[in-house]
Specification:
81 residues; mainly alpha
C-alpha cells in the first residue's frame, strides 16, 4: 500500500542527493531511515535503563553478580591465551 507524506524542500533535495549517490530508490532510503531511527530509539532506551542500574549501587551489584554467573557459562574448554 502506498501512502503520501509531505516533506520539506530541503529534505526532498537531500533524499534525491542520497539516492543519486547510493543508487537506492527514495523509498528504500526512507524505509532504511525509519528502521535506523527505530533502532536508535531502542538503543537510547536501553542505555538509559543501563545507566539507571549503574547509578543504583544495589542494582549494579546484582547486575555484576549476574554477569559473573553468565561468564561462567562460556567455558568452551579452551584456555585463555
Amino acid at each position: 500500500m502506498s501512502k503520501l507524506i509531505r516533506v520539506s524542500d530541503e529534505a526532498y533535495s537531500k533524499l534525491d542527493q542520497i539516492a543519486h549517490d547510493t543508487g537506492l530508490s527514495r523509498q528504500d532510503i526512507f524505509n532504511k531511515a525509519i528502521i535506523n531511527l527505530e533502532r536508535e530509539a531502542i538503543f537510547k532506551k536501553a542505555n538509559e535503563a543501563y545507566a539507571a542500574i549503574k547509578n543504583d549501587p544495589k542494582q549494579w551489584q546484582e547486575e555484576q553478580e549476574e554477569l559473573a554467573l553468565w561468564d561462567s557459562t562460556l567455558g568452551d574448554g579452551l584456555n585463555d591465551e
